[in-house]
Structure formats: C-alpha cells, structure tokens
Amino acid sequence: MRRPRPRRRGFLARLGILLTAVLPAAGCAGAGALGAGDETLVIAIVSNPQMEDAVALSHRFEAQHPGVRLKFVQLPENQARAKITASVANEGGEFDAVMISNYETPQWAENGWLENLQPRIDADPSYDQDDFIPSIRDALSYRGDMYAVPFYGESSFVAYRKDLFEQAGLEMPRHPTWEQIQGFAKRLHDPERGIAGICLRGKPGWGESLAPFNTVVNTFGGRWYDENWNARLDSPEFRKAWNFYIDLVRKHGEVGASSAGFQECGNRYGRGQAAMWYDATVMAGTNEDPQSSEVVGKSGYAPAPRQRTEAGGWLYTWSLAIPQVTENKDAAWDFLRWMTGKEFVQTVGNEFGWNRVPTGSRNSTYDIPEYRQAAEAYAQPTLDAISVADQEHTMTKPVPYDGLQFLSIPEFQDLGTRVSQQLSAAIAGQKSPDDALTQAQEYAETVGKSYQESGE
Question: How far is 59 from 74, CA to CA, in rounded Å?
Fold first, then answer.
C-alpha cells in the first residue's frame, strides 16, 4: 500500500538544530565520563515498568563487566523522544546508548546518525538474530542491516473484563468491529460505580493519543496523504474516524480522557475502573501481574477492532541503538547485547515474575514453559497481532509513507504532536471536532506542500 520515496536528509539535519535550540542539553557529565577509574555509560531510556526492571537488574551487568558503570537518564515518553532526538541529530554525544523505536531507526540510519550493529551481531552467533520476530527485525533494519535491537515489540489489542461481559450478557466476537466495541462501551459504562466503558488515550503526543487513533483512521479507510502528498484529513473517511474516536471517549470513556495516556489507562484498568482498554499488547503483562493489578485473571484479549480492513492494529518496538558519535561503542554494545538477549528474559522471569518479561521481540520467549503458563491468556493474541501488523492488512488505499500508528517522515514528530493537540482539545470540549480537524488539516497541508515542491 506504499510507494517508495527518498528520505530527506536536509530536513533531518534541520530538525536536530531546531530541537537543540528549544531543548536544554543533557547534564555536563556526558557519555563516557570517568569516575574513580570506572567507565560510565550514559543510557537514555523511556520511563515505564519494563525499563524500570532493567534498571533494577543493571547491577548484574556491572558485576559481569568490572570497570563499567551504568547511568540511566529516565524520562516520560514525550520528553525522552525530544531529548534523544536533539542529542543524536546534533551529534551531542551526551548518550552512549539510546532507546528509540521503529519510527526513528530507518530514518536515523540513513542519515548516518547510528552505528551499524550488523557486524557485531554477525560476529556473535549466540546472540541469535534469527530469533527475533521477523516483522520486528525488519522494522529496525536499513538496507538489510540492523541499526537497533529490540527490547520489546508490540501491536495493539483490546483487553476486556470477562466478568463484566458475562454479567451484562455480552460476548466479545473473535474479530470485533469498532461499532461493536462502541456498543459494548455504551452498555458497560457505569459512572456511578466508577467504571468507564472503555479507556482510550487522549493525551497529546504523536506517540500518545495518535497511536490508537491512527489505527482507527486506517481501518475506517482514511489516510493522512494520498500518493501525491495531498493532505486528506478532511476526507469523509478521516473525518468519520475523527468524530467516532472523540464521541466514543467523551461518552463512554474515562474521566479526564484528554490527559490520559498509556500509564493512566493502565492504572485505571488495573484498579478495575474500566470495562475495556484498547492499547499496546505489552499491557497484558501488567494486567496479569498481582503486584500491579487488581483484575488478575479477569481479562480476555481480542484483536484490534477493525472496520473496513482485515486487521486494525499497529506495529511498534522500543529498541536500543548506539549513536554514531559514541566513543565507547564496545562497552555500549555489551550493554545492548545484555538487555536484549535471551538470558535477560530468563532473568526477569525468575526475579520479577513471568508476566513482566519483555515480549514481542524474540520467538524463543514464547517457548519458555513458565512464560507460556503465565501468559496463557495473551501470548498467542500478541503474536497474532504482530504478525498481521502491516499496511497490506490494515489500510485500504496506497500512501506515500511507511508506518501504521505513525508516518515515517521526520516532520511527523511536530506534525503529529500538533494534530494530537487538536484531538485532545476536542476530547476535552475546548474546541468543536470540526474546528479542531480544520486546524489539523492546515498543519498537514503545510507538510504535504513541502514534499510536492521538492518532488519527493
């Protein structure tokens, strides 16, 4: 569904300069700083439960690598994206390793910002790159070489309270449509008991609310641009998805939806305050973890809702990469290998429980008996979702960009955030859906015209 196009080196360079101008640099102690004879690796990561487990286990890496100390810079997702982009784009050298995704990896690899990891991977057969789920491995590759290695991978699906469905006499279909999900949310929405019919992200951010929203656009038959880079946010299909999402979350969603992201919905669902939650497949481990959830064993997991397509989910992976300017590449690779290897999965399972292991990246994880038992409710749905997360299954018309829940163009960090702000404003009732969409269309037109003028 996508036609190839060249990437835009000039804009990528300008993007780095722009971000540096608006964001403070990392602390004075940059990557590779020395202290008491130790080599310090500075690692920028997103702050979420899976990464926190890695930080908690980091002493094991340090014990295996005497003389190397790890310093983690943990930030919320939106802040992490901005700071990491600013540092890497401008060759700031603040970080020895960075957590990025399949959005950044191919673009940054082409622009020469990342170390090619393939020679190191090939030199270490025990790392076993063939164990990576193919769609995840390909998403982190450029011209056949991996420039980032996955910590975990995900698509999206619906978690739903089986007990509440049973009490209401409802049955989740094997492949639900969005209209069916809307009907379930209406039936199960119970503000008096503090239960939302569904939890959906409304928090601004191109990696926040736009992730689930864009999957609705795709399956409703919408697209951001046609093949000639004409913005199509004002098309009937996009408008229908826009109004549907806003209406669903306003009528049957969580309180304060305009500021709710993955973490907020996870907290609400785990406390039993939502009948359904549509989000990343990685949420299932948290839902089934007795240490963080009050609804363990009460959830079923259904494929991402669809409307006009065969599937409706996204494809995403948090991964680790080494900036090209890093001086401590050998030590940085040792860390990447440790955090993304098979042994790490075993360590997390044994230390914290099998519902907390990073999933969606290695096939071998799904062969571990303890994990299969712990993840019986969601292991196969996760693999199934990742396997069909491509444009051929989730879009109805050709587009000039890669990506499902994002557009793999450098401008999308700004464009997506601006559009998400309009979506959030409409959810909050601060703007009408029509006015918000009109503004979003204008933002998209500006970017589309730059591609048309450059002939790309």
Answer: 17
